[in-house]
Amino acid sequence: MPCPVPWAVALLLAAPAAFAQTDDATPFYAGGSVGVAHVSNVFRQSAATNSDTVVTTGLLAGADQRWGRQRFTVDGALQNNRYSSNSALNNQSYTLRSNLAWQTVGNLSGTLSATSSRALADFNIGGGVDPIFKKNTERNDEYAAMARLGVLTRTTLEAGWTHRERGFSAAEYDRYVYRQNTAQAGVYLTPGGNVKLGLVGRHTRGMYPRYPTGIVLNPDTLHLQVRSERNDFTRDDLDFTTAWSTGGNSSLTTRLSRSRLQNTLDALRDYTRTTGTLSWNWRPTAKVQLGVQYARDTGQESLSRAAEANRVYTSWRINTSYALSGKVNLTASASRNRSQLAADDGRALADAFDRDQTYSLGASWAVTRGLSLGCQFNHASRDSSVPQYVYSASSYGCTGQVLFY
């Protein structure tokens, strides 16, 4: 996945630290952050480079409240991002998330959640879109509801609904604009205290409102323009899941799915294939944590921001953290994402690919309960069958944050 642009570096340093502060002892907090970040290749160009420095100021707020058996949490961050050289890219970004965990007197419980974010999108997103050199904001929204029956028993029934949508301000990214609704129902068994098995069915209906299907000549202006059409799609998944915990210091979760995707546009192929994820977390000591994630999926279910229904995505990520002291924490991560055109008709499409790699190093210092500092370095690169999608970029920055309770 692409390395975050400078505003995202500041957000990654500031927001998670604030979000982690809310607990029963601190029901409210508010504060601010200031960050400076430098990126070596703003527009992710394959040949030329365009470096810049970004100053980000942010407001942070959150709450964590209990009412009997119910618990409500909300966290928000608003950033103002200013570029030193490319002032046309100045923007306001935000992240907002909320969650209501509810429970009745019996074995019925559930959650209601909502998340929304807006940020500057990648300039070289790949996947069939030419790189652009103008301001382009991306917005993501997700709303979900889940109900569970049998929390304290060996058998749990679950049912839920999720709505997702993504939009961009630049017309060049129309192929990635989508919205979808997913309904799911499943049963989970706990044969032992440390093993959980699940069988879940999911049905998704969604659409791309403006998916490009070709280039046509406008008879009025005599200029070439992109022709787009609406694509409706459905996806059916049957998931087999496992969760295994080995005494608290290691946990392994898996999902193996048989997935079937159907599109109304002929340009997007229908296919049936096996998808899945694997996640392993290991804490060998109280100071060290290691996580490994692997996923193979399609379209909006993948880990890629440039996801579309006509590609298969294979991703892995490794992350680790080390508590140098009670106040200083070190982090490192590496990820790789490969996308390839999906083909079920026997054609060889091995040369149609994008392969993204990212690496990051970070350090944070909790000076006091309300004051923290952090710095992070990121490097991203892409190899692709399309020369203009190939790039390499690095970014580094530091952020200070103050919270009041």
Gross morphology:
globular
CATH topology name? Porin
Q: Report the strand count.
A: 18
Regarding CATH, which class? Mainly Beta
- Poorly predicted tracts of residues: 1-23, 343-350
Topology:
Blueprint: H1 6-19, E1 28-39, E2 52-67, E3 70-83, E4 91-103, E5 108-120, E6 137-149, E7 155-168, E8 178-192, E9 195-217, E10 224-245, E11 250-263, E12 271-282, E13 288-298, E14 311-323, E15 328-341, E16 353-366, E17 371-384, E18 391-404
Antiparallel strand pairs: 1-2, 1-18, 2-3, 3-4, 4-5, 5-6, 6-7, 7-8, 8-9, 9-10, 10-11, 11-12, 12-13, 13-14, 14-15, 15-16, 16-17, 17-18
Explain the overall architecture:
The chain has 405 residues and is mainly β. The chain has a single domain (6-404), classed as Beta Barrel (Porin). Helix content is 3%, strand content 64%. It contains one helix and 18 strands. It has one helix at 6-19; strands at 28-39, 52-67, 70-83, 91-103, 108-120, 137-149, 155-168, 178-192, 195-217, 224-245, 250-263, 271-282, 288-298, 311-323, 328-341, 353-366, 371-384, 391-404. The protein has an 18-stranded antiparallel beta barrel. A hairpin with a 4-residue loop joins strand 4 (91-103) and strand 5. Mean pLDDT is 86; it is low at 1-23 and 343-350.
